[in-house]
Amino acid sequence: MAAKAPARAGAQRTVTRAEMDARVRDGEVLVVVHHRVYNLTKWVKFHPGGDLAVRHMAGKDATDAMIAFHPPEVFSERLPRFCVGELAPEDRITSPVSVSYRRLEAKLHEAGFFKTDYFFYARELIKFTALWLAMLYLAVAGKSTLSYIASALCAATLWHQASFVAHDAGHSGISHSRVGDTLFGICLANFFGGLSIGWWKRNHNVHHIVTNDPEHDPDIQHMPFLAVSARFVNNLYSTYYNRVMEFDAAARFFIPKQHFLFYIILAFGRFNLYANSWAYVFARSYMVPYRMFEIVGMSFFWVWYIWLLSHLPSWGHIVGYVLVSHMVTVFLHLQITLSHFGMSTVEEKVLVDGKLVEETFAEKALRTTMDIECPRWMDWFHGGLQFQTAHHLYPRIPRHNLRAVTPLIKSMAKEHNLEFHEFNFVAGNRYVLGVLEQVAHQVGTVLSVDPSKVHMH
């Protein structure tokens, strides 16, 4: 059943846009959903998807984002208790794009696209089990370098493929139960991948809300190694990491060469995910759901992985195994970066009812996202993330349905003269590399003309 406006609970006071903006400036977290104003200030720290995903919507119309991420019962049962009034009629603006987005959401529910094919995920689990057992057997019982390489490739394939299912679980896109999918995601990601599903959810939800914003989106904040915008030369402050991303000596070395080093840097991406995962589970500045379960899971991973490594005959074999098993997962990181690295990083304004307003949730997704066009047999390689636009618009749809949903989204985009970005795999790589090269040249020009632009300590 599609998400509907919360039931009206008696007479509500009117809240003007001016009052709402003033209260937000004073630190309150007020959002608008279906023209009603909700005060989430006291609750925001308990948000299961992380507080930042909510804080980024403060003072804004969050209707479409709420529809994207939440099941209908959130609108009918939980949201009404936070209602503090209705937005003044003169301040209400509903974009035609939002109307189409909500209409399509209802249509997708009616057509059954939110329903899960559990046989699909059962097959995935069987595949993961076979890969894990093969990895252990080839490393422990194997007596040759070839068997160790085969084991490492099984590990890389397991982590590559399991990441896609853990991604679905993080979006509650499997059972559509937040608790059930989160616990399943922990069992898969933490115990067998060494990564925190909670960290991923907090990071990824922010990414969906503020996609490709250099100051807010952690998925494009990879200083000092990569920069998708020349704005990073200005030592931007990351609201996600709560620190300045300094354009330091390392950035001066890497960024002008990033289009040459892109694939090499991606090959080391998994090591960074470990660091972020451990930093998350030990964080004290925000709530960490299932903290101990996550810590136990990641600890279990390192127990069995180190046990496996202990059966290798030499330090050379151990180092080689770690590098092969981790660096071959480069294909996962490549798919993730192709989705956004080449897209716009400049916030847009749109004209609605004669007023210049922020773009809608759907318009942002279409502007900042790239799809990869490929035959069905390549779905294994891309894991459904090649249909990134459909996923960003409706993240709770199981990925096995995204191919069928994509034509409907293309029609919606065409109806509103919005561009749908789609490339084949080779062209997508070329496009992203071209953007990285352009930014590298822009940064190089800034540094050569005015080296003082870079703040050094």
TrEMBL record:
InterPro entries: Cyt_B5-like_heme/steroid-bd, Cyt_B5-like_heme/steroid_sf, FA_desaturase_dom, Fatty_acid_desaturase. The chain crosses the membrane at residues 125-142, 179-200, 260-283, 290-308, 314-334. It is a multi-pass membrane protein. Pathway: Lipid metabolism. Residues 12-88 form the Cytochrome b5 heme-binding domain. It is found in: Membrane. This is Cytochrome b5 heme-binding domain-containing protein. It comes from Polyrhizophydium stewartii.
